[in-house]
Amino acid sequence: MYPYSVLINSLIGFMFEQTFRNIDDVLWKEAGCTTELDYTEQTSWLLFLKYLDDLEQERALKAELDGKRYTYLLEGGYRWSSWAAPKTAAGEIDHDQALIGDDLIDFVNTALFPYLQGFKQRASSANTIEYKIGEIFGEIKNKFTSGYSLRDALEYIDELRFGSQEEKHELSHLYEAKIKNMGNAGRNGGEYYTPRPLIRAMIQVVRPQLGETIYDGACGSAGFLCESYEYLRQGQLTTQQLADLQTRTFTGKEKKSLAYVIGIMNLILHGIDAPNIIHTNTLTENLSDVQDKNRFDVILANPPFGGKERKEVQQNFPIKTGETAFLFLQHFIKMLRAGGRAAVVIKNTFLSNSDNASRAIRRELLSSCNLHTVLDCPGGTFIGAGVKTVVLFFEKAPFGSAQGAATKKIWYYQLDPDRNLGKTNPLNDDDLKEFVDLQATFAETEKSWLLDVAEVDPETFDLSVKNPNVPEAAPLRDPQEIMDEIAALDRESAELLAGIGGML
Fold first, then answer.
1. Cα separation values, 447 from 18, 34, 280, 465, Å
2. Are 353 and 318 in a shared domain?
3. Cβ count near 253 (within 10 Å)
4. How far apart are CA 491 and CA 25, in angstroms?
5. Residue 16: CA atoms inside 13 Å, Cβ hemisphere, count?
């Protein structure tokens, strides 16, 4: 027999899942929404306003119990309970008062969104929820064209509750599934989604601790920050530790508007009320301006693959290159505090590219940090991305360390799930368990080995993945040699058949 709490959580999960299906059905029929990106975008702003209303109601109730007066962030007519879901005395939607049709669309486009956009100018600082409100609604657009479809979506969203941690947990799972579907749908949605089993494995190796600061300068949907939060909030935490997780632990930066909004919503659903996600192009920051106070204890990131940056952006970096990911890697090396640890996903070609910039960055990484682990990921790890990747694990030695920061040995692990990865067969946690276990001792196996950096070519700094425990494949034969052999076999066969024919 299942415990009562398990049954309740299962019921909550089922109800929320059905609600999300209903919302998707409404969006599918809405002419203004044509892709999974649109579905996620429109669901996000509706969820945010419902979350904000639940948060305000909770704060107002607490203030009343304390005998205090609560001042709402949103003025009366702009609150969810006023325009989105006005209720009767019985707690049902008051359809006589609820806006619908063109009136609803007109209110959202000409009154609600401009009002919410104004919060950015009125906020006391960028770290407040008021500022996030202004940022979100300054970057996102209402794509509902039918006020009847929007009315249906509002009433489904109103069924959701953000009151308990269990409710937020269930909603976060559903939202993550929506982000994953957005990535699977193609276009640029895949930029926002890193497989969660890979993220969790990276976190297990890096092992962030309570009190440390965690940073992702290309955070997308904030998957690394969300999973780090889940990792750190396990067990019995003090009030101060919980407060630190809310306000001082996580920092993310994101350039793209939709990803920024999704990242904020994702962190909110995981339990962080006012996420410290900054809407900015990280690469426009000049590395020479970075001070120790700007650095972080832990960096976890998957910067964009294949991007090309303008020359004015390249000027912010000591090693000039147009490759977005390689500039980000320089940024992460600089932003890592002495004694800090990092795990960064990057194209596997970074390890062997022969251009001057790639060689210089590899030299810088090996000399300024201890690149202790390289995880070689198979094709298909990233759904929709046609590139192979590796994960670089490195750390900066503390100041005064006798051994220095320079890399001495690199432990490689070749991930082989023994199946073709893809949309219907994605990476899972079990696939990475052996890697995490072996990495703790840098054990050498058929899939893992150590490279002595002293043996690396000082001219090329080639760090490409070459498993010494697997026999090299026989070299490909010359095509002409193959053709000659086929011709010889054909002649031999003809002679044999002629001989047989003469015997008949």
1. 43, 44, 40, 11
2. yes
3. 22
4. 67
5. 21
- What is the span of the domain harbouring residue 380? 188-455
DSSP character at residue 93: B
Please tell me whether residues 158 and 220 are part of one structural domain.
no
Is residue 160 located within the same domain as residue 235?
Answer: no
387-443 pLDDT per residue, tens: 789 999 999 977 655 456 789 999 999 999 888 887 778 889 999 999 999 999 999
Separation of alpha carbons 223 and 219, rounded Å: 7
Pairing state between β 370-376 and 389-395: antiparallel
Backbone angles phi, psi at 496, to 5 degrees: -65, -45
Q: For 476-493, how does the pLDDT look when each residue is reduced to its tens digit (9 = 90+)?
A: 566 776 776 777 677 766
Query: What is the Cα–Cα distance from 370 to 203, expressed in whole angstroms?
Result: 18
What pTM was estimated for this model as a whole?
A: 0.85
Other Cβ atoms closer than 10 A to 62:
11
- 224 and 286 belong to one structural domain: yes
- Say how far apart CA 306 and CA 323 lie, in whole Å: 6
Statement to judge: residues 376 and 284 lie in one domain: yes
